[in-house]
Amino acid sequence: MSDQKFDVIFIGAGPAGYVGAIRAAQLGLKVACVDAFTGKDGKQALGGTCLNVGCIPSKALLDSSKQFYNIAHNLPVHGITVDGAKVDLATFIGRKDKIVKQFTGGIGQLFKANKVTAFYGMGKLLKGNQVEITAQDGGKQTISATNVVLASGSVPIELPFAKFDGKHVVDNAGALDFTEVPKRLGVIGAGVIGLELGSVWRRLGAEVTVLEAMPDFLGAADADIAKIAFKEFTKLGLNIKMGAKLSKAEVKKDGVHLVYADKDGEQSLVVDKLLVAVGRRAYTDGLLAEDTGVKLDERGRIVVDEHCHTGVDGVWAIGDAVRGPMLAHKGSEEGVAVAEWIAGKAGHVNFDTIPWVIYTEPEIAWAGKTEKQLKDEGVPYKVGTFPFAAIGRAVAMNEAFGQVKMLAHAETDRILGVHMVGPGVSELIAECVVAMEFKGSSEDLARIVHAHPTLSEAVHEAALSVDKRAIHKGN
Fold first, then answer.
1. How far apart are CA 101 and CA 44, in angstroms?
2. 194: which of 35, 127, 220, 451 lies 20 to 30 Å off by Cα?
3. Residue 15: in which H helix or E strand, if any?
4. C-alpha separations of 309 from 34, 144, 226, 418 in Å
5. How far apart are CA 19 and CA 122, in angstroms?
6. How far apart are CA 45 and CA 29, in angstroms?
7. Parallel/antiparallel/unpaired status of strands 415-422 and 363-368
8. In what order do the strands lie in the sheet with 363-368?
9. What's the CA gap between 289 and 41, in Å, rounded?
10. Where is the FAD/NAD(P)-binding domain (predicted)?
């Protein structure tokens, strides 16, 4: 028998689960949320990977490392010289931990304010929409609901020949808590996590070598944007080797000995720390009893339809554990949509306008189709580009690198994709997402007045450039 009965139970309190739980409670439903994440203080830490060891802590370290890097590399241009700057790593990491605790605690307060009941432990779906909760001490209890939403998230993929030991070979969580700046840092994977955390430690003085098995840098991004980004990362000092496939990682007294193969054959490399960031997989370990009827696909993700329903009555799944990009904001919007569907309202998630952001220096952001995708699909299109080098605000900030690239349909002018690399593009992409969501055209953005001088003028000029009428560059 179940101890307690709810309208809806969310298993997982990451960006998908906790947001969905709050929205469901706002709609008048009786809501529970089960999560087992433990913080550094040994207590429940709501927020999942994103708030605890992902999005938020990595951005805190990126910002702190940028401040230090600017002292030596950017402030002299402004006529400001600082001698003897150094990093107190304990304070550096401590600031990140304080921010994480602030936000995880904030979710707890939001749960209380919205009357969401939080359970601390591992949640497992049983037949009949019951959820078994296993506490840290092994004790068990069972609760039930009319609806159960699986939001179990994802975990780092571990390589069989480079297993995580938490000290020499680490995942993203380990790379957030180094006790000293490694002299030599190896990074396996030139994706979002590898580039962001590689940038953090490079700015603090580490020699960073990134090994990427794929031949093309940032294959998911537009090729022109990826090319510019690669050039800027090289300037930062990231040694990125493409087409480099790791085959061995052995921990010895003098470091981690790597063996990899590239176009020139077998190579070797010794590093002090190795960050393995080759991607993430849906985390469904122990989530489902055998008789629930919920199915997994060939990649271990929970199978759902376009409304995030599993096909089992009252069972839904959202976030990293299902199809689609593993992005916090995608999971959050699915959580909101499912809560609204359960409450009999109209939920909405448009996968065609989900923005992607890489918070490196420069930042990279995009939404919609790449030029290659449009070519492959045979869609007629026009291209408009504009460099930040011609933007007064970017030059004044000493960050005049990168560009905005806009793709519009050749016949209807509807915006099909926008791709950016440069200063502040994580914020600039929002304007383009709004325009795309409302089926806007490049003409729409071209005729909207943008404040001067701002970085957003690059979006304006790129829209003008689609019809070869940009003002501040040759067309």
1. 11
2. 35
3. helix 15-26
4. 19, 18, 36, 31
5. 19
6. 24
7. antiparallel
8. 356-358, 363-368, 415-422, 403-409, 381-387
9. 31
10. 6-335
Catalytic hit among 73, 307, 348, 452: 452
Q: What angle do CA 246, 248, 253 make, to 5 degrees?
A: 125
Instruction: Give the pLDDT of residue 302.
Output: 98
* Beta pairing, strands 117-120 & 31-35: parallel
Element (H, E) at 101: helix 89-113
354-466: which CATH topology? Enolase-like; domain 1 (3.30.390)
- For residue 133, list its beta bridge partners: 123, 141
Q: How far is CA 288 from the centre of its chain?
A: 26
The structure's pTM equals 0.96
**Homologous superfamily, domain 169-278:** FAD/NAD(P)-binding domain (3.50.50.60)
* Ranges in the chain, pLDDT < 50: 1
d(CA 237, CA 227): 16
- Name every residue whose Cβ is closer than 8 Å to that of residue 74 and which is 6 or more positions away in sequence: 398
- What average pLDDT does the structure give for the chain? 97
Q: State the residue for tokens 């150094």.
A: 86
450 catalytic? Reply is no
Which residue spans of the chain are classified as CATH 3.50.50.60? 4-155+281-349, 169-278
Catalogue the E-assigned strands of 107-244.
117-120, 122-126, 130-134, 140-150, 154-156, 169-170, 184-188, 207-212, 239-242
Six-digit token string for 448 = 């909207």
Which pLDDT score, from 0 to 100, does residue 1 have?
44
Model confidence over 266-307: pLDDT tens digits? 999 999 999 999 999 999 999 999 999 999 999 999 999 999
Strands (E), 339-397: 356-358, 363-368, 381-387
Number of Cα atoms under 13 Å in the Cβ half of residue 93: 14
String of DSSP letters for 269-283: EEESEEEE-S-EEE-
Q: Do 337 and 6 contact (CB within 8 A), yes or no?
A: no
Strands (E), 206-351: 207-212, 239-242, 245-252, 255-262, 265-271, 273-276, 280-282, 315-317
For residue 221, report the phi and psi dihedrals to the nearest 5 degrees: -90, 170
Note the CATH architecture for domain 4-155+281-349.
Answer: 3-Layer(bba) Sandwich (3.50)
CA–CA separation, 75 and 269 (whole Å) = 34
